[in-house]
Specification:
aminotransferase; 5-stranded parallel beta sheet; Glutamine--fructose-6-phosphate aminotransferase [isomerizing]; 11 helices; transferase; binds 6-O-phosphono-alpha-D-glucopyranose; carbohydrate derivative binding; 16% strand; 44% helix; alpha/beta
Length: 363
Amino acid sequence: QAAEKGGFKHFMLKEIFEQPKVIRDCLLGRVDQQSGQVRLPELDGLPVPERLHIVACGTSYHAGLWGLYLLEKLAGIPVQVEIASEFRYRDPILPKNGVVLAISQSGETMDTMAGVKLAKSRGLPVIGLCNVVGSSISRESDYVVYSQAGPEISVASTKAMCSQLCALLLLTLYWGRRSGRLDTAQCTAILRGLQDMPRVLEDALPSLRAEAQRLARHYAEATSFLYLGRGPSYPLALEGALKLKEISYIHAEGYASGEMKHGPIALIDPRFPTFAMALDDEFFPKVKSNLVEVQARAGEIIALTNEGLDLAVEHPWFVPKAQAPLSAFVVLPALQLFAYEMADYLGKDVDQPRNLAKSVTVE
Ligand code: G6P
């Protein structure tokens, strides 16, 4: 096992550090440099969806929620994202022009599979976005896009989500170009940024880990965290909170930062830290004003942010600046590393957290 971990203490850490390769592998053979086009021949028979229903569980659900922001804004496709266990029993209205996108790392999650079967029984085409080749969901789907992350061993999903984000971005560009919503220049600029991301991450990962270690020691006694994000950073806030819960057993909740005033703000005090995504993007002024509210109640803040922004918090955590849809690829490993370092410092069983399974094949 030690050899399989490639010198890392845990599979989770190894998989976090594999993310530059994961992005490269997900892009493999899918980008046409000349024309700036995305190639997804596995979908060529399918017209651009008029509406998309994304169905998934756990971390894959968070990836889907992130995809919503891109698919609507860049590809102009109306999107609904559904927790599979709710979708399957809701008797959902599925218009005939809809397409279902089932996201599952393992391709074996029972609730997601039930969503696939429901969609098929209503005559909707189903695309499976899976990691495991030949898995049940990939076999049941009409079309399959593989996220190509390689085997994920750690129960808590890390690199698989990175590959799902990458695949969702490729889908967005693929459909955005076909519908004429995106032009060559827009597509090429995003693809260049995405192709450059593995190098950016390789440079950044060691210092992200060092900062995660420092913060974990500082916050090891905390019993609860509030994760805040806005826009496409909102699903990342949900994922950051999920990772912390899963492996360190510390309570955390993820919230859309604009919703904080409708409840969680009542919890803020000096012993209840906030972990915010405050990046250099269109949402920054709003996020900043939410954080001022936290500070007014003596709440401490860790903020994933970019150099040069006017933000005064206890723990600014600088990440490389990336153009809008790409910032997730640097934020995600920071969130994962923080959860990892907290769990490791607290002596938890990182790769096999209590009560959790890698893939949930029962209800
Ligand atoms: C389990 C795993 C999670 C995963 C979820 C969905 O709960 O512990 O890490 O996100 O299932 O799994 P899937 O294989 O469908 O992506």
